[in-house]
Design brief:
This protein has about 325 residues and is an alpha+beta fold. The chain has a domain of about 230 residues: q2cbj1_9rhob like domain (Jelly Rolls). Strand 3 and strand 4 form a beta hairpin. The radius of gyration is 20 Å and the shape is globular. Bound molecules: 2-oxoglutaric acid. 2-oxoglutaric acid binds next to strand 12 and strand 13.
Length: about 325
């Protein structure tokens, strides 16, 4: 049977997922090595940030409308609340909800940065976002306590190659609103990604000398890149602004997804058939993983120059929102 010349699957099969390697400059990489994170400015324009922020606000409203009595139980095209409080909406799994949010998950530069830290091609393990404002009961009379945590332990999560640190669970967190000192930017215990001395003890020591706690203060469109071995938390939001952030987490392609981690595993968290059909061939390993444990290691040296090229996003196959929900 002949394939029609305008069949999108024919063009799709020829498209490669091209992304930068290495994606960080030597200076950015040294910052990452020593502090356990790097903030890369100007990755997204103000317009791109605003579109993603608006999509998150729309999703919050849609999820509440879907289940007004118990918003936590609402679901819209696979998207769910992880937390839903008046001052904090934490939403996850919104791949099929909005194409601007979806584009973040497979943005060539974001994936390139994460893959550099993984040391191999990536599988997307989380896609989520937060809209948060000052808690009503915030006590400003004492120094803040943070909800510090990590997502993987140093022994299992880390390795080095060419003298550089790598982790199997990496996050790219982009602030969609400007973050001044009072706007609740992420806080981290600098250098803790390489310090297997006990998380509780390190946190206690950091509270003794708070200069060890670094906070993200950056214009909208900046990317905080960090491994989940780094002790980190949401910062204290003292201003009147609402903070908006979007986060993609990446792991080697043999790992499974982390999404919906706070829920009982009573439903299948895999993508809907309608969404899966839309995934372009070149992005299938990123979204679905690889069939074998072929990690395909790829490592930079510190002196390798950053790949300065801008790579185009891979176009998605057509599909209607109704199809995606199925
Ligand atoms: O809200 C933040 O700034 C940090 C988010 C976070 O802790 C996480 O994604 O693990």
């Amino acid at each position: 049977m002949k394939t029609p010349p305008d069949d999108p699957s024919v063009a799709d099969a020829k498209i490669e997922f091209r992304r930068p390697f290495p994606a960080l400059t030597g200076a950015e990489r040294i910052h990452f090595e020593t502090c356990g994170y790097v903030v890369v400015p100007d990755v997204f324009s103000r317009d791109e940030c605003e579109r993603m922020r608006e999509a998150l606000c729309r999703l919050r409203a849609d999820l509440i409308a879907a289940s007004p009595a118990e918003p936590q139980r609402g679901s819209v095209r696979g998207a769910v609340f992880e937390h839903c409080m008046p001052h904090h909406a934490f939403m996850a799994n919104f791949h099929a909800y909005d194409d601007d949010l979806l584009s973040y998950a497979c943005h060539p530069r974001i994936v390139g940065m994460c893959e550099e830290i993984l040391g191999c091609p990536s599988r997307l393990t989380e896609l989520n976002g937060h809209l948060n404002s000052r808690p009503p009961d915030l006590d400003l009379s004492k120094p803040p306590d943070f909800g510090f945590h990590t997502g993987v332990d140093i022994a299992f999560g880390s390795h080095t190659h060419n003298g550089l640190y790598h982790c199997n669970f990496v996050k790219a967190l982009t602030n969609l609103t400007d973050l001044g000192p009072d706007d609740g930017g992420t806080v981290v215990v600098a250098g803790s990604h390489k310090l297997p001395a006990g998380e509780k003890e390190i946190i206690a020591a950091a509270y003794e000398d708070r200069s060890l706690i670094h906070q993200v203060i950056a214009p909208a469109g900046s990317v905080l890149l960090f491994p989940e071995t780094l002790i980190h938390a949401t910062g204290q939001l003292r201003s009147d602004k609402e903070r908006a952030i979007i986060i993609a987490a990446h792991s080697p392609r043999l790992y499974q997804r982390w999404d919906r981690y706070s829920h009982e595993p009573t439903s299948d968290p895999s993508y809907s058939p309608g969404f899966t059909q839309r995934i372009p061939t070149a992005l299938r390993p990123l979204f679905l993983g690889a069939p074998h444990w072929d990690r395909q290691p790829r490592y930079r040296t510190l002196s390798a120059p950053r790949d300065e090229k801008t790579y185009a996003a891979v176009p998605w196959l057509p599909g209607s929102p109704e199809d995606q929900a199925t």
